Amino acid sequence: MKEELRDEISLKAEENLSYIKDLLKDSTDIVFREFYIGKLKAALVYVDGMADKNLLDNYVLETLMVIGAEIDEVEKIKDKILTVSDMREEEKLSKGINSMLSGDTIMLIDGLEVCYVIATRLWPARGVSEPSGETVIRGGRDGFTETIRFNTALVRRRIKDSRLKVQSKTLGARSKSDVAIMYIEDIVNKEALKELLQRLEKIDIDAILDSGYVEQFIEDNKVSVFPQVQSTERPDVVASALYEGRIAILVDNSPFALIVPTTMAAMFQSPDDYYQRWIYGSTIRIIRFFSIFASLMLPALYVAVTSFHPAIIPTKLAYFIASSREGVPFPAFVEALIMEVSLAFLIESTARLPKAIGSTIGIVGGLIIGQAAVSAGIVSPIMIIIVSVTAITSFTTPNYEMASAFRILRFILIIMASIIGLYGIMLGLIITLIHLVRLKSFNVPYLSPLVNPEISDFKDLFIRFPIRFYKKRPEFMNTGDKVRQK
Fold first, then answer.
1. Which of 3-7, 104-108, 384-388, 439-443 has the lowest mean pLDDT?
2. In Å, how far are 100, 374, 399, 469 from 260, measured between CA atoms?
3. What's the pLDDT at 1?
4. What is the CA radius of gyration of the chain?
5. Three-state helix/strand/coil letters over 107-138
6. 280 class by beta-carbon count within 10 Å (0-12 exposed, 13-18 middle, 19+ buried)
7. Rounded Cα distance, 124 and 391, in Å
8. Of 350, 435, 347, 340, nearest to 383 (Cα)?
9. 0.85 exceeded by the pTM?
10. How far is residue 414's CA from residue 164's CA, in Å, rounded to a whole number?
């Protein structure tokens, strides 16, 4: 239930102070510093550990208690006495209290029907470092942190344009988390921006602890396995998306930015594709697409061919597979499921382990489990090879959420292959394709540019053309300013 705070500010600082003390009783981290400016009663209220005490001591308290004693009109305190650069008047006490709980300091003075909000936010923050989940060979090494103002600054550093807009909102009835919506005014997809603001307005929840909360509220299809909102820790990826007319959403306390609208093709693109020469970038992208296809199809094809269509296997290979599966008590379907589930367990446990031992445990665990499974006759050596190749190729997907979606889809195809063989795989792929064709992200088709007739958008799909060919922004994004290179 939403908390109702008082808006009226009394002329008596003591009355306002008593209300705040009663409201925040039993909170030992709230500091109430009462003092006098000449004969006027005044008070500072802030959260210990979130406010800059040096700023308050040197530029507020010292100034007001020494120089402020000579002031003849209380209204002159803000303009002639206080030597802080960032402060504002707030006519509603409720807004002042919310700002104070976010790290600012509120000042109450006798004779004023407003409170002063002084920007003193200085909470513990992690330094800017390279994102561990989106490493690149060539490119920037800075990544987002948990502090929203650091993150907006990292993006602003890459877009020194007066038309870059940053709209601020507060989400969460209790957490009151700061959210920043970033876009370039003359480029942005106006329809997507309007739709995003409407969806954000509908969010009514106690707390927003991470950008993942917002992602689940604003996505188009809640039951699809495919992510319809792109998440990233890299400010250069956000800047690139803004230049294409997309919108970025930054949430305080989260190092992940959200990008909308997004497409399936964007999930398979890496910053490396653009920072290297186009020949290298295109080659890597083609390898990536083949790897993704292989990781999706290999286990299902093995089950389908060995269980339903052994006649299509070359004779020598068929003898090899048959001899390797001799003594295995399970059918190919169960064999594949055992290894896929074991692989999923191994990947998940490695991700949760400390980094110092995670990679070692992953390699050793994989070798031991694989060798033990073959020695025990539970699975065949060919199955170990297929699962290993599947694991290696699945790691080429730059986006973790998309890799997870393909992992789920891989299980579905294995099950369908065990029922009707290759026909099951084809049926599964057709159903998936129908779903993808119908899927949209903020009214932008998810399979763009494949489903769009504009040929120029294909220059950045399977092959990355040289930069000089990118004269216009993607047509499917419906941007304002469409020209990006003359």
1. 3-7
2. 32, 46, 15, 25
3. 44
4. 29
5. EEECCCCCEEEECCECCCCCCCCCCCCCCCCC
6. middle
7. 39
8. 340
9. yes
10. 47
